[in-house]
Write a structure and sequence with these properties.
By secondary structure, the chain is an all-alpha fold. It is built from 17 helices and no strands. It starts with a helix and ends with a helix.
């Protein structure tokens, strides 16, 4: 693939609807495949660790919001990489693309090392705050220590994927994860079934798999003939480009961290209901999250398509990208929600066969959250549209107030009065619906196409 070919496939020319689908589908499948790392962990320990099955599932599930808090903070910064590269591709600024690639690689590796060291130091006090049952606590801590040690390679893959998104390529990150995903499942079975390990085995398998996917993408970038080619001799931080990345990335990072902090509080409330509920929620999360990755792929598509067309000063195509991402997203997300509602119980049962009570508890989560994801689609796409113009702070602040604020208040008020799993889950459609409305109002106020178009 050469630079000329990249321009022919540019998002600034030709039909949009099929290009959006071609971009979003591999991106959604990439997210789903990433989630199978965690799903495979839970399925294997749930099926092959005997009486420890429920405790192992609860231990891995207890890690999810904490790991998301740490990792998503840096993934928010990677959105800055995506937007900066997309803008530069649209304006044919190859020098900025090069600087963004090498700056992002350094940020990923240095950030990963810092997070790994801090994670190891703070692991135990963090988990002491989570109301984890005694039988699951030591295993939850063990899983976290192994997983967090692999943060440098995990962040490397995600920043590399952001680079590919910026130039309009979502297929290569997907293919890299196909390879890594198959290896992950094989290693899970090897460590747990044949070596007799528990959560330490599946955590090790996940880290190795992420390392492989990161190496595969690095090799593709080294061989690339595009402006995004990686050359270790050019590894240095560009202050001007880093500033642009952080201007967009820090608000997104802050939003992700506050969002994850609210989910840690929710997870703590779930843990307080016992090991069975925690295990059921853990299994259900690995089902309903597939729906999230579908809607999020259209949000990221809107960011990239808007970013490139904004760079090319084609504001009509920016507006059309927003409309098509919403329309196509509604259709495909609706199909995904219907699928998960219909097959939800069967999918949850895969994690712990022969436990109908766990399945029914988990299905409560699937019902509440997947249907609420239709609200998520609207705010994710509209927020992505504004990020494509470099507007990142105001959508982040709105989301923090509407989603995180409502969820935290709900747990300390409503849940304290009605201590049930359903009462926790009810906060999801409420907070997501309020946020979708608030982001829509913000978009009407900002009107970026009109504002920036008038300056062109």
């Amino acid at each position: 693939m050469n630079a000329k070919k990249i321009r022919k496939q540019s998002m600034t020319e030709g039909s949009l609807w099929n290009k959006i689908l071609g971009f979003a589908f591999p991106l959604a499948m990439t997210g789903i495949l990433q989630q199978t790392f965690n799903a495979a962990d839970i399925a294997v320990v749930g099926n092959f660790t005997g009486e420890l099955g429920e405790a192992c599932m609860a231990a891995v599930g207890a890690n999810t919001p904490i790991i998301n808090f740490i990792i998503n903070g840096f993934l928010g910064i990677s959105l800055g990489t995506n937007v900066v590269i997309a803008n530069a591709v649209g304006s044919k600024d190859d020098e900025t693309v090069q600087k963004a690639v090498h700056t992002s690689m350094i940020v990923a590796l240095l950030g990963g090392v810092i997070v790994a060291l801090l994670g190891e130091l703070l692991a135990e006090p963090i988990f002491r705050m989570q109301n984890i049952s005694d039988e699951a606590f030591s295993m939850a801590l063990l899983y976290f220590r192994i997983y967090i040690a692999g943060t440098p390679v995990i962040l490397l893959y995600n920043f590399e994927a952001a680079i590919f998104r910026g130039i309009g390529n979502t297929r290569i990150p997907f293919l890299a994860l196909v390879i890594a995903g198959l290896i992950n499942v094989g290693l899970n079975i090897f460590f747990v079934v044949f070596m007799g390990r528990t959560v330490d085995g599946v955590a090790t398998a996940t880290v190795i798999s992420n390392m492989i996917s990161g190496i595969v993408l690095l090799l593709f970038l080294k061989k690339s003939k595009t402006p995004a080619r990686f050359d270790e001799k050019k590894l240095r931080i560009s202050g001007s480009v880093l500033k642009k990345i952080l201007k967009i990335g820090i608000p997104s990072s802050l939003q992700a961290c506050v969002f994850s902090a609210a989910n840690i509080i929710i997870q703590s409330a779930i843990n307080s209901l016992g090991t069975l509920v925690a295990a059921a929620s853990s299994a259900a999360f690995n089902i309903e999250i597939f729906s999230y990755y579908v809607l999020n792929s259209f949000g990221q598509a809107c960011t990239t398509f808007t970013g490139q067309n904004y760079g090319a000063r084609k504001f009509d195509r920016c507006r059309k990208s927003l409309k098509l991402c919403l329309l196509e997203g509604i259709v495909i997300e609706g199909l995904m929600v219907g699928f998960l509602l219909f097959f939800g119980r069967d999918l949850i049962a895969v994690f712990k066969p022969g436990n109908p009570e766990l399945v029914e508890i988990g299905y409560v989560r699937v019902m509440f959250i997947t249907t609420a994801h239709l609200f998520s689609l609207f705010y994710d796409v509209m927020s992505g549209y504004m990020r494509g113009y470099g507007i990142s702070l105001s959508p982040a602040l709105v989301t923090m107030c509407c989603i995180c604020g409502i969820r935290i208040i709900w747990i300390y008020t409503v849940f304290e009065q009605f201590r049930s799993f359903a009462s926790i889950m009810a906060v999801y459609p409420l907070s997501l619906g309020v946020n979708a409305l608030a982001i829509f109002i913000l978009l009407l106020i900002k009107r970026p196409a009109k504002k920036y178009g008038a300056k062109a």
